[in-house]
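pinning this so it doesn't scroll away 📌
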Amino acid sequence: MESTVVEPECAIGSEERLRLLPYKLLARYFAAPPDRELLDLSARLEGDGTPFGRALAALAAAAAEATPEGVEEEYQSLFIGLGRGEILPYASYYLTGFLQERPLAELRIELERLGVARAEDTAEPEDHVAALCEVMAGLISGAFGDGRLTTQKRFFETHMAPWMGRLFADLEKARSARLYRHVARVGRCFLEIEETAFAMIDGHEAAVSVGD
């Protein structure tokens, strides 16, 4: 994805940076098979005792044992296949059962409003999970949109939350998934964190309204 507005990531705070990195990691894993550099980076991830932390640690352990050749074969089986892969990582498919349906059209309207243009060398439609994670990273960094948390919340709740959890759940139990089982678990746990955080925004706004 490309933006008509680009601002440096150094301008964002530490909390936003912590949210930005998982989105970038997920976008990279879903956009293409991971290369040696990404596997090595993933192998250095450290977790803690939280579900998300344990998911990161499990991904790190799996990445340390993976090879680019093996993971490329896994990626092909999962997402490409002969005719189609085991998993179709598109919003339209999960929300309607078909590709390139109304969710994609609505997303394109939203992307135009946010000033996000489709990259010329991208063959995938914009409702691919990698593209949506890239957009969310751009909204957090300030590259896309107006930089407001409410804009991020609206995009997340409209275009990601209604289906992406089911994608990650399907990927965790997919027949061909090995490394990507752990990628999916990271995605699922992070999605739950984001859902909880955005729900707190509603609670805070309601409390302020009552106080006024």
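📌 and the second one:
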Amino acid sequence: MGGNRTGVQTAPEMAEELIAGAAAAGPSMDGGPEMADAERAEYISKGFPVGSLPGLAFAEEAKADDETIGMAVFLDKLSERLAFERMGTRLYDAFLVKCETLGEEGVGPTLAEVEEIRDEEHRHFLLLNEAVTELGGDPTVKSPCADVAAVASLGIMQVLTDPRTTVTQCLQALLTAELTDNAGWEMLIDVAEELGHSDLSERFTDALTNEQNHLLNVQTWLSDRVSAKL
């Protein structure tokens, strides 16, 4: 298994000493994990939001009609996809560098295929930017859902930019992104249809078709590379 020495079975005698030492050491304070849970619960109960969306809080406080509140929620989800497509473009930029550096192999994506997906992610970003503007929103606003999406995708970017990761490991991380992306577009299409924006729904459906192809490609490349090692 190479130089990996993280498992305790590599040095069972030292592992026994470690366990004995941990058992002999007393806790530094009274209480256990329940104290951390109680601390988290206190912060959660205070109800601090991740962020805010212009107009949403006012609309709720003013008891605005459902259409106004629905539009605010729609803009929040649009902002979420906008943030994710921006990150998606950067993810494939990073993956392209990885593939260029390590070189194309017998199985997996070609540089041209990676560039094509990167370009489609960027077009989706521009589509969402245009949609938000058409609805009277500000595409530069980081809404609550957009903020959460950006944080959630940070780990994927870390995998792709880590100099130690392989193309196969990067594809595994991209699979997580593409599964999330497909589900996000499906929800956005449902919301657009529910609010009567059939024109946007049609444009989003075209984007979903692209994303479904991205997912299929990533799944195929990953499967082929894993099978090649068997």
